[in-house]
Amino acid sequence: MGKFSRLGNSLYEGDVSIDFMGRKWLWYSISGVILIAALGGLLFRGLNLGIEFEGGSQYAISLPSSQITQDNVAKVRTAVENSGIKAASTATAITAGKTIQVTTEDLTNADSNKIVSVLAKTMDVSEQKVSIQQVGASWGRDVATRAIEGLIIFLILVVLFIAGYFREWKMALAAFVALLHDLAITIGIYALSGFQVTPATVTGVLTILGFSLYDTVVVFDKVRENTKDLRSSRRTYSELANLAVNQTLVRSINTSFVALLPVAALLYVGIFSLGDGDLKDLALALFVGMGAGTYSSIFIATPLLAQLKTREKQVSEQDRRAKARQRRDADRYANVPSFTEDMPIGAEPGAVPEDEAPVRERAAFQVPTATVRPAPAAGTGRTVPDPKAPVEQSGSAHRPQPSRQPRSKRGK
User: Fold this and answer.
1) Which pLDDT tens digit goes with each residue over 327-367?
2) Average pLDDT over residues 186-193
3) Global pTM?
4) Cβ atoms of residues 102 and 80 within 8 Å
5) For residues 172-195, b (16+ Cβ closer than 10 Å) or e, as one string?
6) Please, what sign has the CA dihedral across residues 245, 248, 249, 253?
7) What are 102-155's pLDDT values in tens digits?
8) What angle do CA 34, 258, 291 make, to 5 degrees?
9) Is the pLDDT of residue 411 over 70?
10) Nearest by Cα to 280 from 264, 293, 292, 296
11) Is the separation of the CB atoms in 255 and 297 below 8 Å?
């Protein structure tokens, strides 16, 4: 940790710098590839919406832990599909804790009772061991609509908050793009992995958007601090924004690492111990979103902000002045023009102008008057006599010379 701390201090002081702004097109390309894969999964595979969004019937069979196996899951699914009920021909079966859950489309009461009988007979248990949860299609659509409305309201409030806090619409735009980036990646991962989308997933998505916003605001606040006296700075806006990212880099890594550890533990428990459930859905959204949020605040939001700001007239003029100062400081003779044949002929340094030449010529023929050289003075103005003999080493040259002693030993 000592080396990591020293690296963080060097990044904060600017002794070591990672060029995030200069490689923005590389970061944009990486994000583009990830987004294309995510959108491809969303278009071709789609989201595995839970029963809360699509509606339908869900049956849970309570069994001992030894019987919660994939073979029994396949056995139950096959039995339901062969029950002769059309709405149950596309049933899905999964393990969830100490139960096997079977989901079908919305069934009538008679068909639902028939499915309960089939499940109880297949697993050789009583019908009381089979619980039923029915959700109407209209109620599921209402839940999905409200979730989308909540997400849109959240994004609008985020833009208004950042625009009001920083008094800069470009920062709000960059933060909004970063949030959409994180949202698209998270939804795409759900589509590619086939994880079920439940209300817990919506909760996780809103949570990770808040985490991403927090990290972005911290970096933007440092950018605003560094660019407060931009006119007197010898660095461009992009260089100051890059310094801000470097100064907050270690903090972002530490915060994300500490936050991802418990989320990864929840995801592991949700997948391998508890099976499908709300815990797994929440943990996956948090894990993917936190990682994407940390990436976007460093590699997307700040480079995009610097790119937008450099298009402003005042910022671009300041960038030119800063670059000129940097060239002048690097080489003081960089601005000296080199000789060319078409250069205008100027007067030599110390040359006499033509209109003053006659005056100078007449002054050259005048008899110079005797000048009295002032006698050299020494001490209080006495005339220094001429030396009568060369200076030689005196006899006291080899005597020990006094040395400076502490005040406590003087006079002893």
Assistant:
1) 766 665 555 666 666 666 655 555 555 555 555 455 544 54
2) 84
3) 0.64
4) yes
5) bbbbbebbebbbbbbbbbbbeeeb
6) negative
7) 888 777 788 888 888 888 888 888 888 888 877 766 766 777 788 788 888 888
8) 10
9) no
10) 264
11) no
Query: What is the rounded distance in angstroms from the CA atom of residue 190 to the CA atom of residue 38?
Result: 9
DSSP state of 107: -
Q: Which residues contact 279 (CB under 8 A, 6 or more apart)?
A: 200, 266, 269, 270
Structure tokens at 192: 């590619």
CA distances from 48 to 88, 180, 186, 283 (A): 17, 21, 14, 17
Percent of residues in the chain assigned helix, strand, coil, to nearest 5: 65, 10, 30
Among candidates 259, 246, 248, 249, which has minimal Cα distance to 221? 248
Dihedral sign from CA coordinates of 335, 340, 342, 348:
positive
Using CA atoms, how far apart are residues 240 and 233, in angstroms rounded to an integer? 9
Name the residue among 238, 244, 245, 380 with its Cα closest to residue 299. Answer: 245
138: tokens are 């209209």
Reported as type and span, the H/E element at residue 3 is helix 2-13
192: DSSP letter: H
Cα separation, 290 vs 373, whole angstroms: 87
Q: Are the C-beta atoms of 47 and 197 separated by less than 8 Å? A: yes
- Distance (Å, rounded) from C-alpha 220 to C-alpha 173? 12
At 29, give phi and psi (nearest 5°).
-65, -40
C-alpha span between 59 and 120 (Å, rounded): 11
Q: State pLDDT tens for residues 40-49.
A: 888 888 787 7
DSSP symbols for 33-71: HHHHHHHHHHHHT--EE-HHHH-EEEEEEE--GGG-SHH
Q: How far apart are CA 34 and CA 274, in angstroms?
A: 30
Which H or E element spans position 264? helix 237-272
